[in-house]
Inverse folding.
C-alpha cells in the first residue's frame, strides 16, 4: 500500500518556512477565470468583474498549535477565529459581509462545548455585522481545527494590495504591537506553574489588556472607516498577524522597495514592557512587536501628501518611510538593523 | 483554569447527529446583510444583489475520519478535496470559478508529500476550469485536515434549492449509487488483511471502478450542462454525499412533501453488486445506495412536463416521484419501506 514513498528526498516543513512553502505549493497554478483579479499572494483573493470587487480569505486555527485549550475559553476561540479572518478583509480596505465556518472536532467535545464556540462566533458576527452563511462540521481523530472563510467587498479604486507602496511613502501602524504575544507569554507562564502545582491559582490580575489582545483580537474596521472619513486610501496595506518585521518584508518584497522604521516610533503598551521586564532582563518589548505577531493591527503606507491628514489620527502611528534600499530598523543610537522574518515555529 | 466546566449537562455529539447539531449550533443566527440571499441550510450559500448570484460552499476532510492515509494516495486526496466541494456548486446548478484551500498538517508530512497533494488539487482545478485563489497553511498536532471553500455563480432563475420540489415532480438521479461505499469496503477489507499479514499484496484487480468512485469522485458538471442544453431547470437539487435516503429526506423536509422511489429503478453498478455479495450474504446493494454516500451524483426533481426531455438522457435515471405522503421506497414486491437517514458515524 502507499505511504512510505515520500521518505526519499524528504524536505521537512520546518526547513522551508510558511511563505516559501506556500510559494512552492502554488507555483504551478495559473489563473483561468477572468473574474480572478488577484489570486494567491495577498491578504484576500480579489474576485469579480464589476466595479465592486469581492474579497475572499480564509484562516485556520488548530488546537495545540494556534491555540491551547488549557487557557482558551471556547467562546473566545469562536470570536477569535472569526476576528482573524475578518482582519484580512480590513487589510484590503474592504467591508466584511459573510463567513462560512468549517470545524473538525473530536468526540472529546460535547454539544454544549460547541455551543459555547458558536456563541463566540455569533458575538463577533454581530459586532461586525457579518452573516454566518454556511459551513461544514466533521469529526476529527483528535482535537479541533476551525477554518473561517470570510467574504467581503470593496470598490476597485479603494483596494489596498501589498504591492502598491511607493518611494518616500509614510509607513503607519494602528494601535500597539507586541501586546498579543505578551499576553501569550503570561498565559504560558501561568500554565507552566499550574502544571508544576495543580493547586495553584493563576495570577492574571494586571495583565487584562495583553490577555485580551491575545485571546480576543479585533479586526480594525474602525481604522478602515477612519481612513475613509479622512479621504485617505493607503497605497499598500497588510494586517499584522506574523509580526511587524514579517509584514514589512511582505510589503517591501511585493512593492519592490525597502524601508526605514524607527525603533522609538514603534508603539508598545506599558503592559507589554512590564511583561518583558518580568520575563527576562534580555527581553526587549520591540522584539515582541517585531516578531510576536497576532496583534491584528493594520500596517499601511500613505503618500507624503497625506501627512497632514494622517498625523493627528488617533491610534495611528507614523513609524517610518519607504526607501529604495534594504528593509531596516533605525535604533535610537542611529544604527540600522536589517529586518528579518521569523520562521513558522511559534504559531500560537 | 478553564476546560472542565463543560462536563455538567454534557450531550455527546453522537447523540444528536450531524444535521441536528448544525441546526442547534446555528439557530441563534439571523441574516443582517441584504446580500445574503440564502445562508445555512442548502448545498451552498447564495450571495449578492444582481441577477447573477454568487455561490459559496465549504467541505472539510479529516485524516483518520474522512480519509485513511493507509490507502489514500495524496494526489487523489487533493483531487477529492476539491471535487467534493465543487460538487456543491453543481448541486445548485451553478458554474464553479475559484477555490481557497486551508490545510492543517503535522510535521509528519514532508514538503514533497504536500506537493503531491497540491498536484491533485491542481489536476482537479484544471479539469473543471477553476482557479486556486488563496488559502491558509497551519501546522497541526497530528494528522491532516483539509478544507476547500468553492466559489461559483449562477443566474437567479436557474438556482436549484432543496426546497423547490412540487407534488408529482419526477425524482431523477445521475450515474449509479453505492459504488463509492463499495470501493471503501474493498479498501477496508484489504487493509485489515494487510494489517494481519504485512507481507500480503492487496488484491485490487477487478475493483477499478468502485475504487475510483471512492478515491477520485467527480462533480457532475456534465449533468448541469446536459440539463441546460435540454432546457430543463430542476425544481430541486442536491448532491449525494450522505446516501440517497438522507438526500431524499433533505429534499422532502425542505420542500414539505413526501416521495416514492422504486427500489428496482435505483441505479447500481455490477461491481457494487459483486462487492456486496462477496462481503456478506445479507448485504444488499440497495443498502449501499441508500446509506453509503460519497457518490457525489446529483439527485434532482423535474416537472412532469419535462418527462419527454429527460427520459432519454444518458446517465439520468428516473427513480420515483414526489408525493404528499411519507418518504418511502417501494420494493419489487410492492411493499413500502419508510426512508431513514443514517447517523454521522461512518464518515469515510
Amino acid at each position: 500500500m502507499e505511504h512510505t514513498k515520500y521518505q526519499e528526498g524528504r524536505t521537512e516543513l520546518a526547513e522551508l518556512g510558511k511563505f516559501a512553502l506556500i510559494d512552492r505549493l502554488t507555483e504551478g497554478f495559473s489563473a483561468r477565470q477572468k473574474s480572478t483579479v488577484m489570486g494567491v499572494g495577498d491578504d484576500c483573493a480579489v474576485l469579480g468583474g464589476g466595479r465592486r470587487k469581492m474579497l475572499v480569505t480564509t484562516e485556520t486555527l488548530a488546537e495545540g498549535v494556534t491555540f491551547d485549550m488549557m487557557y482558551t475559553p471556547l467562546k473566545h476561540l469562536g470570536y477569535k477565529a472569526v476576528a482573524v479572518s475578518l482582519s484580512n478583509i480590513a487589510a484590503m480596505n474592504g467591508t466584511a459581509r459573510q463567513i462560512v465556518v468549517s470545524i473538525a472536532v473530536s468526540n472529546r467535545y460535547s454539544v454544549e462545548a460547541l455551543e459555547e464556540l458558536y456563541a463566540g462566533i455569533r458575538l463577533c458576527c454581530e459586532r461586525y455585522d457579518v452573516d454566518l452563511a454556511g459551513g461544514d462540521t466533521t469529526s476529527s481523530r483528535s482535537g479541533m481545527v476551525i477554518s473561517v472563510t470570510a467574504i467581503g467587498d470593496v470598490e476597485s479604486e479603494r483596494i489596498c494590495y501589498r504591492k502598491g507602496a511607493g518611494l518616500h511613502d509614510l509607513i503607519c501602524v494602528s494601535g500597539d504591537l507586541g501586546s498579543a504575544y505578551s499576553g501569550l507569554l503570561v498565559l504560558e507562564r501561568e500554565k507552566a506553574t499550574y502544571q508544576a502545582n495543580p493547586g495553584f491559582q493563576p495570577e492574571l490580575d494586571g495583565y487584562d489588556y495583553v490577555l485580551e489582545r491575545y485571546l480576543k483580537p479585533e479586526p480594525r474596521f474602525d481604522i478602515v472607516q477612519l481612513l475613509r472619513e479622512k479621504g485617505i486610501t493607503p497605497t499598500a496595506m497588510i494586517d499584522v498577524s506574523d509580526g511587524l518585521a514579517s509584514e514589512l518584508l511582505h510589503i517591501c518584497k511585493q512593492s519592490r522597495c525597502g524601508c526605514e522604521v524607527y525603533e522609538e516610533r514603534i508603539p508598545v503598551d506599558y503592559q507589554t514592557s512590564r511583561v518583558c521586564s518580568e520575563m527576562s532582563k534580555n527581553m526587549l518589548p520591540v522584539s515582541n512587536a517585531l516578531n510576536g505577531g497576532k496583534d491584528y493591527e493594520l500596517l499601511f503606507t500613505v503618500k507624503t501628501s497625506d501627512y497632514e491628514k494622517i498625523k493627528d489620527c488617533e491610534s495611528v502611528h507614523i513609524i517610518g518611510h519607504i526607501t529604495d534600499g534594504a528593509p531596516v530598523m533605525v535604533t535610537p543610537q542611529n544604527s540600522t538593523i536589517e529586518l528579518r522574518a521569523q520562521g513558522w515555529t511559534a504559531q500560537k
The radius of gyration of chain A is 21 Å. The CA atoms of residues 35 and 259 of chain A lie 33 Å apart. The first helix of chain A runs from residue 13 to 16.
